[in-house]
Each structure stands twice: as structure tokens, then as C-alpha cells.
Amino acid sequence: MRLILLGAPGAGKGTVAKMLTAIDGSVQISTGDILRAAVKAGTELGKKAEAAMKAGELVSDDLIMGIMGERLKEDDCQAGFLLDGFPRTIPQAEALKGLLEKMGIELQGAVNLNVPREVILDRLTTRRTCVDCGAIYNVKSNPPKEEGKCDACGGSVVQRDDETKEAISKRLDVFNEQTAPLVGFYDKEGLLLDIEATSSDVVVDAIKKHVGI
Ligand code: ADP
Ligand code: ZN
């Protein structure tokens, strides 16, 4: 599959992407995961991105396009890719369009996961993430078997720095201002698939149907 996953923070992009990769071997490319790994490793990229991330603001388009230009050239993308958290602004969407055209790659769709704001807020405040593999848990609905420890890799499961109440509210504002317009962009491109995303299973089924598998 070659898809973009759109939707507010907490809409379930990461969960859905992980379910889809298991179906056909496409890779999940999460700019958030790439950036968090860079911050953790203390690389140049991490240093540049850290402050914006902590505040719930966006990292610059140039930095993101640099990362994605390289990432999409890697061999594993031949099996397909699920873009999770990218593009996030109209300039990123325009740049991605140019990049894919140059590479001769055609997208199959941009999936918009629609989730009510109350659900988003509840999910984000109860969400926990594995620092090592990025696996996502929820203290209420899907806790790890052993508290604070990832079922998949044994890494620490923690609340992200940007999942304080203040940063969450900032991320939702940023989303509404900068990312929500992408729905219109992809609608014009004839690529939009809009889904009421209350359950990940429903979303995955709709996507499978859309790409014909
Ligand atoms: P979310 O749960 O908000 O979808 P992500 O893990 O996708 O979180 O992203 C975490 C943070 O990383 C964002 O708040 C932002 O600072 C930065 N980031 C991730 N992807 C992008 C992007 N495409 N453009 C700019 N900043 C990004
Ligand atoms: Zn893990």
C-alpha cells in the first residue's frame, strides 16, 4: 500500500499503520518516531527538533523534507509505505507531491481519520508509548501486561513529554491551523478517503476495501 494517514494527534494513525504493515509488509514511516529517536540519540537532527517538539509545535518543513527525501529512497519502501504524521503542512504536501512525481511513485490515497475532539483528548491523556520500539498503549483500554514495561520489546512504557495537558492542547491547535487544510488539498487531488474512525478495525477494513485487498 502507498498511503498517507491524516488525522489529529490521537486519531489512531500509528495504531492503524501498525495493523496495515502486518497485512502486506508495507513500512510505517512516522516522522514523530524518527524525530523522537533522533532526540533520544542526541543527533544534530534531534537537537534541532527537540524544543519545537516539547512545546507541541511543528518542526520546520525543511528539516522534515530532508528526512523524508532520504527515507523514501530506502529499499524497504518498495513494498509500500504508510505515511504517519507526514505531511503536516501544505508546503510539505506540495513538496511530497513533487518528490513522488520525480521518483515515479503514485499514491493510492490520503486517508483522513475523523475522531471527535472529546475522544481525542481522552485518548491522548491516557496514552503511553514504548521509548524503544514506539508501541502504543493506553492505561485504560490497553495497558501493557506488566506496568511500565513493553510487551513487545521490554522497553519502558512512558507518557511522552508532549502529552502534558498544555502541550496536547497546543498540538490540537497546531493541527487545526496547519494540518486540517490537507483534507481539502487531497480532496482536490482526488486522493481523499474520509473515515469516521471510532474503531481501528473499521478503519482497517475501509482501507483494505479502498486499495482492493
Ligand atoms: P502526534 O501524536 O501528534 O501525531 P507525532 O508523533 O506524529 O505526534 O509527532 C510528534 C511531534 O513531532 C509533533 O508535535 C511535531 O513537533 C513533530 N513532527 C512530527 N511530524 C512532523 C511533521 N511532518 N512536520 C513537522 N513536525 C513534525
Ligand atoms: Zn517496545
Keywords:
single chain; 213 residues; 49% helix; 15% strand; binds adenosine-5'-diphosphate; binds zinc ion
Task: Give a verbal description of the structure.
The chain is of the alpha/beta class and 213 residues long. The protein is 49% helix and 15% strand. The protein contains nine helices and eight strands. The chain has helices at residues 13-24, 31-41, 44-55, 61-71, 90-103, 117-126, 165-179, 182-188, 200-211, and strands at residues 2-6, 27-30, 81-84, 109-114, 127-130, 136-138, 157-158, 192-196. The strands form two sheets. It has a five-stranded parallel beta sheet, sandwiched between helices. The protein has a three-stranded antiparallel beta sheet with strand order 6-5-7. A hairpin with a 5-residue loop joins strand 5 and strand 6 (136-138). Helix 1 (13-24) crosses helix 9 (200-211), helix 2 (31-41) crosses helix 3 (44-55) and helix 4 (61-71) runs parallel beside helix 5. The mean pLDDT is 94. Zinc ion binds next to loops. Residues 130, 132-133, 135, 150, 152-153, 155 line the site of zinc ion (ZN).
